[in-house]
Specification:
The chain has two domains: about 110 residues, no CATH class; about 150 residues, Alpha-Beta Plaits. It is built from nine helices and eight strands. The strands form two sheets. It has a four-stranded antiparallel β-sheet. It has a four-stranded antiparallel β-sheet with strand order 6-7-5-8, sandwiched between helices. It starts with a helix and ends with a helix.
Length: about 280
């Protein structure tokens, strides 16, 4: 027998339950021994799927559809009347939890899609979209950032000789190396092919000192006959933000075209970057 007070308290408890299991447990606990066991089922395309149970492990009564939520069926024991209002509240809360779950799944899928849209699938680094977004953020913050454009000399020959698997491994490894040596100092991106970009948004180094650091630390230390051609440009050198990457690209290409020995190339890059 359900008292009015017990009935109202149970409805309020069911209305705020945060999971299917909590709903079932609250219904058994709040029924004041009227119910000893519950089994919840969901029907999809003519197939019943067990969703959960609470109370005793005895076989519950024949499942009946819940009002307002016909896909959900509830069986209970003993076979005592269960107020329609309680069944209706249970059904409404189950539908609400379904909506929350779908919303959570959609949000997770959207986050995954957003991440994929900004991530290079081979290296896991940010891609060109991510780089453009970071540059825009730096521009909004009015930061004097540096862009380091990197192209790998000798990569095509290695890729052609040993195959794409080794070439891909090199690109991934170099991406890890760049992320490691620039940790907490800069952001690293792969634009495609063997082209990488490092965005230095905050540094205590002067442009000249930064150039020396970049030429020394951003080289490839682990592969013979493959090196990094590097061009550096600063925001204050260009009239607009779009020109910074282009300037860094031009300086990188000039270094690449010159094909100077390592020491001479290093000095040439220092001179070009500081003027």
């Amino acid at each position: 027998m359900w008292s009015q007070a017990d009935h109202e308290t149970l409805l309020l408890t069911l209305a705020v339950a945060e999971s299917q299991q909590r709903l079932l447990d609250q219904l058994v606990q709040g029924s004041v021994k009227t119910l000893t066991g519950l089994t919840l089922w969901r029907q999809e395309n003519g197939t019943l799927t067990l969703q959960g149970w609470s109370g005793t492990s005895h076989e519950e009564g024949k499942p009946v559809p819940l009002p307002g939520a016909p896909n959900y069926l509830l069986g209970w024991t003993p076979a005592a009347p269960l107020p329609t209002s309680v069944q209706a509240m249970l059904g409404l809360r189950l539908l609400y939890l379904d909506v929350l779950n779908e919303k959570r799944q959609l949000s997770d899928q959207l986050s995954m899609l957003h991440h994929a849209a900004l991530t290079d699938p081979l290296t896991g680094l940010g891609n060109r979209r991510a780089f453009d977004a970071a540059v825009e953020a730096a521009e909004v913050a009015q930061e004097d950032f540096a862009v380091v454009f990197i192209d790998l000399n000798g990569f095509k020959a290695l890729n052609d000789k040993f195959g794409h698997a080794l070439g891909d491994s090199l690109l991934r490894g170099y991406g890890v190396w760049l992320s490691r040596v620039t940790h907490k100092r800069a952001q690293v991106y792969r634009l495609g092919g063997d082209e990488f970009v490092v965005l230095m948004r905050r540094t205590v180094l002067s442009p000249e000192a930064f150039s020396v650091w970049a030429m020394d630390r951003l080289q490839i230390p682990f592969v013979d006959n493959v090196s990094a051609a590097i061009g550096i440009a600063w925001r204050h050198e260009c009239e607009d933000v779009q020109a910074v990457l282009s300037l860094a690209d031009e300086r990188m290409y000039a270094v690449k075209k010159a094909e100077l020995p390592t020491t001479a190339t290093h000095e040439r890059r220092r001179f070009r970057t500081s003027n």
